[in-house]
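To illustrate this point, what follows is a protein record of this kind.

___
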Amino acid sequence: MDGAHSATLQLQQLPPTSSDSSMSEGSFSYKENLIGALLAIFGHLVVSIALNLQKYCHIRLAGSKDPRAYFKTKTWWLGLFLMLLGELGVFASYAFAPLSLIVPLSAVSVIASSIIGIIFIKEKWKPKEFLRRYVLSFVGCGLAVVGTYLLVTFAPNSHEKMTGENVTRHLVSWPFLLYMLVEIILFCLLLYFYKEKNANNIIVILLLVALLGSMTVVTVKAVAGMLVLSIQGNLQLDYPIFYVMFVCMVATAIYQAAFLSQASQMYDSSLIASVGYILSTTVAITAGAIFYLDFIGEDVLHICMFALGCLIAFLGVFLITRNRKKAIPFEPYISMDAMPDQWLLFKKFSNSRIHYVLQF
């Protein structure tokens, strides 16, 4: 009787232990999500500051009699260092959080650029004129912040380790193979119309960018995850899949940048930033959901709130970029009134880098 009674007590204690384990696993997953989100936000903020520093350096040199080349100035090198630091932060974030959470957070760079642009304006505005001119930017920033908050709060809690076996298993799964087939067919059709039929519509070009970008972020997450595991002592670099993913990551990123460069020669940067962000984020989240099964096990409420966060962020980015003047031939983030001898600006800066961050 005593043995049966003790066995009954042990069975009764099992459910709380299992529940505690589930709670600790969930908290660990949420902690990793938070680390990834903070790394991504930090990275995008630093990249925005770096781009503006380098642009500031170009403007100062063009508007002065300083004979130095831009790469001989401390400001330009500081911008380069910050850019590398920011890109490293974004790269590392993919190793901790689901792809579906990290990709939409590139909206942070658009918010940061908008705020930096307003701060550096040196023109004198009356309060009413200032609010009327920048009301869309203020509303857009607010919406983007709200959308980002919803994305972080209701993002899927994926905590799968990016081991060689897991990456290979996802790569040969039939849902992803079917997705890849559809994407390849769509990419070839778009490329045919773009090259042979001269279909230079911005949607066509940016869809090509988005399709390549979805493969870039899928491979970035695999490479970053396997590198982090290797650093932690679980070596993954002896798996051939690591090098396959690395080559695909570099190749898709290069072609993605090439299509973006072509788009920048035909369309305004603000239009590219808004349309590109919406298309790239949508396609990348779809790829992540299929390849990494980000939303498996998530309830309908969390998925709907996450989708709502994406829509709000999309609207915020659209409003921010819509308020920007068309920068033709060249318009810096920093007001020309703040620079000496602004009439010495040369046309060679008219094709400066578009502030549209690759999903990478």
About this structure: The radius of gyration is 24 Å. Confidence is low (pLDDT under 50) at residues 1-27, 326-360. The CA atoms of residues 122 and 338 lie 6 Å apart.
